[in-house]
Design a protein that fits this description.
Elements: E1 2-9, E2 19-26, E3 31-35, H1 42-50, E4 57-62, E5 65-66, H2 73-77, E6 80-83, H3 96-105, H4 111-124, H5 140-153, E7 158-161, H6 170-187, E8 190-194, H7 198-201, E9 206-211, E10 214-219, H8 220-223, H9 237-247, H10 252-261
Helix pairs in contact: 3-4, 3-5, 4-5
Bound molecules: adenosine-5'-triphosphate and magnesium ion.
Length: 262
C-alpha cells in the first residue's frame, strides 16, 4: 500500500535535517497513529507521502508506484483521502453539499455516482439538516465533518489524516474513529493519522513515534504496555472517559517523554 525507504528531508535553505533515514511500510487494512511533539515533522512527512514535497533522499511508493517524474499524481490522489491540518481554510464552495460534490467533480465521476456518494456520506456524517448551509456560518466541528465527508465520498484506498479530530466533540471523535476503522476493514483500506489524544491512539494497529527525525514503530499493545486496560475500553467510550478521569491517564507528550528517555 505504502512504502518508505531511507527517506531523508530538509527544507530548502535549511541545514537542519528534519527527517532522517525513515523506513516503514503500511499494509492493506492497517491503521497507523503518527504521534510526536509539535514541530517534529508530522505534517512534512504527510506532504512527502502525498508527493507535494520532494524528498532529499530515499524512495516513496504508494500503491506500488514510485514517486518520480513519471508518476501520474492525479491517478494516485484519486485514491488518497487527505485531511489538511487546518481544515477551516480548506472550504471552497458555498454549501456543505457543494463541498462534497466539488471533491467528486474534480475526479470525473458520473452524475449518478456523485449523487449516490453524496447521499451516502451525508447520511453517515449526519449532515442532512445542514447540507444547504453556507460553511462560513457553521461550527468548526460541522466544517470538519463536511471535509471528512468529502474525503469519504472519494472512497479512498489510503487515508492521510492530519489531526482530523481536533475540532470534533467527544461524540464525533469516537464516531469518526469507528467509521474509519469500519471503512478500512470493509474496503481493505489503510490510514495514517496524527493525533494529540491517547484515546485516539487506541484505534490504531501500530503507533509511529516521530522523534529527532526518526520513527520508532510500535505495535499498539507494546505502546500501551503500561496502560493496557485501555484496550478493553474500545467498545465503550463512556467507560473510557471515566478511566481517564479516575486513573489520571498521562498525555501523549508524557508517554513520548518516557519513550525518549529509554
Ligand atoms: N515551508 C517550510 N519551510 C521551512 N521550514 C518549515 C516549513 N514548513 C515547516 N517547517 C518547519 O519544519 C518543522 C516541522 O514542521 P511540521 O509542520 O512538519 O511539524 P508537525 O510535527 O506537523 O508539527 P505540529 O504538531 O505542530 O503540527 C518545523 O520546525 C517547522 O517550522
Ligand atoms: Mg502538523
Amino acid at each position: 500500500m505504502l512504502k518508505v525507504e531511507n527517506l531523508e528531508f530538509s527544507y530548502e535553505g535549511s541545514k537542519y535535517v528534519l527527517l532522517k533515514n525513515i523506513n516503514f511500510e503500511i499494509a492493506k487494512n492497517e491503521l497507523i497513529a503518527l504521534i510526536g511533539k509539535s514541530g517534529c515533522g508530522k505534517t512534512t512527512l504527510f506532504k512527502l507521502l502525498l508527493g507535494v514535497l520532494n524528498q532529499s533522499k530515499g524512495k516513496i511508493s504508494v500503491f506500488n508506484k514510485i514517486y518520480n517524474d513519471d508518476v501520474n499524481l492525479r491517478e494516485v490522489w484519486k485514491r488518497i483521502g487527505y485531511f489538511h491540518q487546518e481544515p477551516l481554510s480548506q472550504i471552497i464552495t458555498n454549501s456543505v453539499e457543494d463541498e462534497i460534490r466539488f471533491a467528486l467533480e474534480n475526479f470525473d465521476f458520473s452524475e449518478d455516482e456523485i449523487k449516490r456518494r453524496i447521499d451516502y456520506v451525508i447520511k453517515i456524517f449526519e449532515l442532512e439538516d445542514i447540507k444547504e448551509m453556507v460553511p462560513s456560518i457553521l461550527s468548526a466541528g460541522e466544517v470538519t465533518r463536511t471535509i471528512l465527508a468529502s474525503i469519504f465520498a472519494l472512497e479512498p484506498d489510503l487515508f492521510i489524516l492530519d489531526e482530523p479530530t481536533s475540532y470534533l466533540d467527544y461524540y464525533w471523535k469516537e464516531r469518526f474513529m469507528k467509521l474509519l476503522k469500519e471503512y478500512c476493514s470493509e474496503k481493505k483500506a489503510s490510514a495514517i493519522y496524527t493525533t494529540e489524544f491517547i484515546d485516539e491512539v487506541i484505534w490504531a494497529d501500530r503507533v509511529f513515534v516521530l522523534h529527532a527525525g526518526k520513527i520508532i514503530d510500535f505495535v499498539k499493545k507494546d505502546f500501551l504496555r503500561d496502560y493496557s486496560p485501555l484496550l478493553n475500553l474500545l467498545d465503550d467510550y463512556s467507560k473510557f472517559t471515566d478511566y481517564i478521569d479516575k486513573k489520571n491517564l498521562p498525555s501523549i507528550e508524557r508517554i513520548i517523554e518516557e519513550i525518549i528517555k529509554e
